[in-house]
Amino acid sequence: MKKRKEDDKSNIVFVGGLRKSTTEDKVAGHFSKFGQVDSVDIKRLPDGTSRGFAFVKFVEVESIAKVLEAQSSHMIDNKWVAVKPHGGTAFTEDKNRERAK
C-alpha cells in the first residue's frame, strides 16, 4: 500500500444526492463492496440535518477505481446517487466562476 500525504484526497470519493435520512452506516455498507471503508463524512447543517452529500474515504486507493467503474450501480436508500473522485476543486471552480461575473 502506498503512503499518502495527509492532504492527499486520492482515496476519497464525493457522494451526492443522498436522502436526508441516509446514515453513515448505510453509506459505508454500500461502499464496502468496493473495498475497506476508512470513514464516511456526511456533511450536515448546524442543526444536524444532512446536506445530502458525503465524502467516503477508503483504506486503499485501488478501491476508488472499482467505485468509479460501477457508476451505474450506486443506489443507496432506494435513490440513485452521484459518485465522483474527490479532487477538491469543485468549491474553487465555483468561486472562480463567481469572480468572473
Number of domains: 1
The largest beta-sheet arranges its strands as 2-3-1-6
CATH H-level homologous superfamily name: RRM (RNA recognition motif) domain
Bulk shape: globular
How would you sum up the major sheet?
4 strands, antiparallel
**Structural class, from secondary structure content?**
alpha+beta
User: Which series of helices and strands comes N to C?
Assistant: EHEEHEEEH
Count up the helices: 3
CA distance, first residue to last residue: 44 Å
What is the number of beta strands?
A: 6
Query: What's the oligomerization state?
Result: single chain
In short:
The protein has 101 residues and is of the alpha+beta class. Helices cover 27% and strands 30% of the residues. It has a single domain, classed as 2-Layer Sandwich (Alpha-Beta Plaits), CATH 3.30.70.
Q: Could you explain how this protein is built, in words?
A:
One of its GO terms (molecular function) is RNA binding. Its main location: nucleus. Keywords: Nucleus, RNA-binding. One of its GO terms (biological process) is regulation of gene expression. Residues 11-84 form the RRM domain. The structure is a single chain. Strands 2-3-1-6 form a four-stranded antiparallel sheet, covered by helices on one side. Strands 4-5 form a two-stranded antiparallel ribbon. A hairpin with a 2-residue loop joins strand 4 (75-76) and strand 5. The chain has 101 residues and is of the alpha+beta class. Helix content is 27%, strand content 30%. The N and C termini lie far apart (44 Å). The protein contains three helices and six strands. It has one domain: RRM (RNA recognition motif) domain (Alpha-Beta Plaits, 2-Layer Sandwich), CATH 3.30.70.
